[in-house]
Amino acid sequence: MDLEKRVQRLEDRISIREFYDRYCDIIHQREWTSYAGCFTDDAVFILYAPSREIYGEGPADIAATVRADIEKHDFFLMTIAGCHSVVEGDRASARISFSEFANGPEGGIASCGVWHDTLVRTAEGWKIRQRHDVLHYLDKAIPRGNTLVKMGDCLPIGR
């Protein structure tokens, strides 16, 4: 592989990882307009979870669906542990391991799973065209804790 292709491959992998880091921060800050901007106009989102499936189509519908699921919690934190991506031109496939912790009026939850994403390169950067969100572990038996700082009330970066 020549140097130009190797550099492009590294740039793509870094920009995809940065995309997912920003994606998590957008959720933590509850910036739902920015969240919708993470998806292509023809995007499809499917969450496979015990006893339910969540489906969204198009950025606005996906954002509204995820927002309704997250905003019932006064605290929601997501981390990603791994991001494996394969880029082929302006398309990429990615597999990302994630963990979530949430606390709300009905108690807390802990979960983890894997996103299986198809991304496309756009003029604005990488966006998700298709997501299969597979939940592998869910614990709803966590007692309600004390939310000390409401999500979205974080300091801006650089302060």
Characterization of this structure:
The protein is α+β, with helices and mostly antiparallel strands. The protein contains 3 helices and 6 strands; from the N terminus they run H-H-E-E-H-E-E-E-E. It has helices at 3-29, 32-36, 59-70, and strands at 39-49, 52-57, 75-88, 91-104, 107-122, 125-142. A hairpin with a 2-residue loop joins strand 5 and strand 6 (125-142). The model has no long low-confidence stretch (mean pLDDT 89).
Mean residue pLDDT? 89
Number of helices: 3
Strand content: over 45%
Return the CATH class: Alpha Beta
Over all CA atoms, what is the radius of gyration? 16 Å
- H/E series: HHEEHEEEE
Would you report the number of β strands? 6
Shape: elongated
Class from helix and strand fractions: alpha+beta
Low-confidence stretches: none
Reported for the largest beta sheet, the result is: 6 strands, mixed
Distance between the termini: 42 Å
Q: Record the strand order, biggest sheet.
A: 2-1-6-5-4-3
| CATH-defined fold name | Nuclear Transport Factor 2, Chain: A
Helix content: 25-40%
Number of structurally distinct domains: 1
Oligomeric state of the chains in view = single chain
CATH architecture: Roll
